[in-house]
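check these C-alpha cells.
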Amino acid sequence: MKIASLLLLAVYSSISVAAIDVTDTFRVSGFGTQSATVTDQEIPTFYQLNINDEWCFDCDTTFGIQLDWEINNALRSSVQLVKTPSDEFSDPSLEWAYVAYRNGELNTKLGRLRIPLFMISEYYYVSEAYPWLRPPQDVYNSVFGFTYFDGASIEWSSWINDEAHLRLLAFGATPKETSEIVQGKNITITSRDAIGVTAELNLDDIHFRASYLHANYKQDLVPSVTGYQDLELFTLGANYLLGNLNLMSEVILSQDIHSNWYFSANYLFDSWSPYITYSQRRKLRDNESLLIGAKYSLLANVSTYIEWQHVWGRTESISGHFTIPQNPTQKIQTDVNVYSIGLSFTF
C-alpha cells in the first residue's frame, strides 16, 4: 500500500525535523547528541571518537543547524552546519550547502552535498532519527569519516505503482584533499574523478538501497603504495518493517579494503525500543562487534540511550577498532567493552 511506502520514505529520506518556520518560505531546524561513554581499555577506541578507560563527556557531542529556503516552487536552497564529534564548537563543519532545482520528477543539486552511500547518509549526525546512539561502526566508520562532497547530483523519483516507489541518483565530485589522523599518524588523502550512482526502491514495508562509487585517489598512510589508485566501492542495504519489529542490514564492499556488514533489529514497546546489532569487518581490518542497547523516547523529539558494545579483533598491532597501533613486543589487547549513555534531540 502507498501508506506503508510513504512511512518508509519518511524514515529513509532527507529530513528536516520539528522545523521553526521563520517565514512561509524560510525555516530553521536543528539537532544534537550528548553522551557519557567509557571503555575497559586505555587504548583509544573508534576512529574520531577515541574513547578510552576514562569517562568521556564530549566524545559524541554533536550539534547541527539547518536552514532551508524555498525560493519558489521549483528552486530551493539548504545549508547545514554541524559541530561533529571531531570538531570544536568554534570550528564546525559545513556539511552541506546547495541549490536545488526541481522540474517534474527530476531534481538537480549543485554545491556541497552528502555522500549518498548508506541508508542513513542523509541524516548521518541526527541520532534521534535512527535506533542507536551512533551508527554501526563496522560500516559507517569504514570511509575515514567522509560524509560530504563538492559537486552536483541529479535525481529522478517516481511512483511505479500504488506499492512501489523508485529513486535513482547520479552524482559527481570535484577533486578534494583531506588531512586525517589515522592509526596515530597525520595522513593526506587526495581524490579525483569521483562519480557514483544510487538506487532506492520502496515496496510497501521494505526498503532497498544500492550505491556504487568510483574514485581515483592517493594516500600516504602506506609508504609502499604510491601514486593514484582506483577505488570501486559498492554498498547494499535493506530495511524491513514487520509490525513493531524493524530489521536493518547493510554491507560495504571494495576490491582490497572493504568486506564489512551489520545486521540490526529493534522493537518498539510504547516509548522503549531495545536493539541488538552484530557486525563484522574483513580485508583491511578483521574484527567482530556485538551491540546491545535501548532507546527511550522522552518526547517526540527527545530520546535517551543506554548501550553496551563488545568488540573483538585479532592478535596484531592494529586490532579491532583501536585507533593506535600496539607494541608487538608486549601483550596485544584484542577485546574492548564500550559503555555509553546518551541523549539526542531535534528542533
About this structure: The two ends are 30 Å apart (CA to CA).
